[in-house]
Predict the structure.
Amino acid sequence: MKNGDHLFLVDGSGFIFRAFHAIPPLNRKSDGLPVNAVSGFCNMLWKLLKDARSTDVGVTPTHFAVIFDYSSKTFRNELYDQYKANRTAPPDDLIPQFGLIRHATRAFNLPCIEKEGYEADDLIATYARLAEEAGADVTIISSDKDLMQLVTSKVSMYDSMKDKQIAIPEVVEKWGVTPDKMIDLQAMTGDSTDNIPGIPGIGPKTAAQLLQEFGDLDTLLARADEIKQQKRRENIIANREQALLSRQLVTLKTDTPLDTPLDELQLEPQDGPRLIAFLKAMEFNALTRRVAEACNCDASAIEPAFVPVEWGTDAHGPDLDIVAGRPLTDDALSAAQAAGTLLPDASPDAPTPAALAKARAAFFSGRPFDRSAYVTIRDLATLDLWLAAARETGLVGFAAATTTADAMQAELCGFSLAIADNAKDPAGASIRAAYVPMQHRTGDGDLLGGGLAEGQIPIGESLARLRQLVEDPSILKVAQNLKFDYLVLKRHGMAIQSFDDAMLISYALDAGAAAHGIDSLSERWLAHKPIALKDVAGSGKGAQSFDLVDIDRATAFVAEDADITLRLWHVLKPRLAAEGLTTVYERLERPLVPVLARMEERGITIDRQVLSRLSGELGQGAAALEDEIYQLAGERFTIGSPKQLGDILFGKMGLPGGAKTKTGQWSTSAQVLEDLAAEGVPLPRKIVDWRQLTKLKSTYTDALPGYVHPQTRRVHTCYSLASTTTGRLSSTEPNLQNIPIRTGEGRKIRAAFIASPGHKLVSADYSQIELRVLAHVADIPQLRQAFAEGIDIHAMTASEMFGVPVEGMPAEVRRRAKAINFGIIYGISAFGLANQLSIERSEAGDYIKRYFERFPGIRDYMESTKAFARENGYVETIFGRRAHYPEIRSSNPSVRAFNERAAINAPIQGSAADIIRRAMIKMEPALEAGKLSARMLLQVHDELVFEVEETEVERTLPVIVEVMENAAMPALAMKVPLKVDARAADNWDEAH
């Protein structure tokens, strides 16, 4: 190596753990082998090499090596037997990946370096020193503070995850000292991760101040009696030897014996076929394609490599290799059991996610809960111990306790934690749970509810610790309905990093088959009935705010919540991989949580005056209809009473089609009234119109002003991710999904939703997305061609069915074709179509028959979908989401028919829902990349609503349209183009 060369040293062990925690659980499809760390490692390394070889980057390495820890035992354990003694064994899912990552490194044609008795950091320090002495530059690919002592004018660091260079100024900015003083700073502060003692009570800021004052650790220790603060002075003097020991432990060896000389680290060209063979063995299809393209190789002509899998306790554990995809032999199994290294919970015959899921479900079903063992954390020292345990396991059940169920107004009054001593194998290890009260009040003393209850950590300190927990990406937080917690914490200035939601995992697995609330899930999977909120906080008029609940009772309730959630995660998470639904959860569910939370927080402005005027108009319209109804009925009665209305229609007037409910009353459902109206009876039509007006008035024009937030002065709806079978979102408080858009009154309500001053509302709406999805799924050539050419799809359908030219087509003919197009999606019957078009049922039946004759692929799709649903109990969207219809095999013909119609529609409606979910997830990064300040406010089925600065409207519209029209990519290339109409205006109605 010579002057002008550049050495890249990759902290391989750091890469492994960052990849493992950054990438969601991923299993090889062929055999269930966990490979998320291998995937993350390969992608990170490929990007690093690709960028390093790019002339645009400006730094091109001549030499390159990946450095690993050999094992957990090094010379430092001889200096201090408690060094790293607090570390637990690696997660079980990670153990087999250590060896695979070393195979990956060699497949990348890179030196794979480790040394028994030494840490990777020592090897990096030695190579860096030698390269610097040779006049070369060095870049260490890591963000580990332990390596910052090596930074000089020739040696820098690079955090590849954050794309951040770390040179001398960055070290000073972060720690307050130059790199040459980092050893002394770490010796003073210690390191809880490595169990380095340091000097108790000395943190980084204090250490930096002392080093600035005294120069170095030796001088500080020699002149410790000059320190003014008594406690600090006594602490330093008492822990002098401990500080010197800590300095030995943190000092990296720059003279480590090297098995691979520096000059042998020269960066060699990529061996494309060798790397592709490894990637194909791992089944990393996307990376395989990228590598093949970059290396100009034909991946299809390259066979997967033979890659052994090591199931040992660490990278150099017992030699228990299995060929990828093959079970252990009997001899190997016996050895594994004797060594204690068999994958936990897995069946010996099939160490797969399916076996793990089955074993977890059996283990946790009926496992007792001991509420008396739940802990109330009342002091900071105890809380720190729990947080340290959470960091060690990397997994914690979490639940927030709040004063109200409204996330936009809720105040935190506490939080709970649940920890399994062995996060990946809870069998045999109890799950501990605790509650941290923060702002519980006595309820005595004054109108505000009295003072704080005793025995609580001061709010500032408890919030600071809570921030450390929720913002630590190395700890996976598991919650139930996490969007609520996310929004509450966000309003308190915290952004959750690294999370799972047990409710959404259940939803991805069992939409339509079961409920996903914590009570239902607990009873179904854990055979445990949780404490009811009403039993803790009361109900009805006697209900009290949760901050007034006695702390002991609150502990039992909230700690149990976290305990249940963590158990559910252990049971449900393996099923995602076992049932092939990981992608649904990771791509369509979990990423949407922060997106929706931010949308809810933003809210939207309403014009109260518009609503007030409209409320008056609706009231007048309803009053006029009431008079007409009384005249037609021949008497006055309570129109809103189903009993009185039924007696008028079927008793007094003797209208046909009457049917009684289980209570013995006449049914006056909307369908009954619509059927009567279709027969030409005027009274039912007036009743339907009256119901619509009064519902709009009560639900929207009268109610919306009451939803205006007292501080933001905006309306904040709450979205539900797991309330429909098909993946569609719903909204409540208020429900903005059901405002009618095809009536004048509904459009007037939308006109009351306005942009804030200096802004416009942008409405972006998918055009006929469900018909486009149908054309894609059923592969209908005529529909595909029409959409591709931008032809009026309803006119085209009418032309195909009725032989009428598109040019000059009568509006009535197009309307009938439109009704059939949309009706087919929902499995409309001849009876339903006849009512909709006001024609004879036989004529409607002829229309449907003719439709299927012209588009036979649609009938084929419907029949094959019903058959699939009957066999499997579910149907799938084009992105793999499952909608379950367990009653599709019901012996009741009407129940069976309903489920068949729903099953036909679900892949269409669900795929459309998945597409807009993908668009929402991609939207904010796209707007940010375009340096646009637009904010996504609402989602209403196929429509997104934004608030955009007036000066940015022209630049924003194309970005929104592009993201929405390409939302299915790259996962899926639609056979028909998606079309989005986007407009800007002062209110929602004008924008739509």
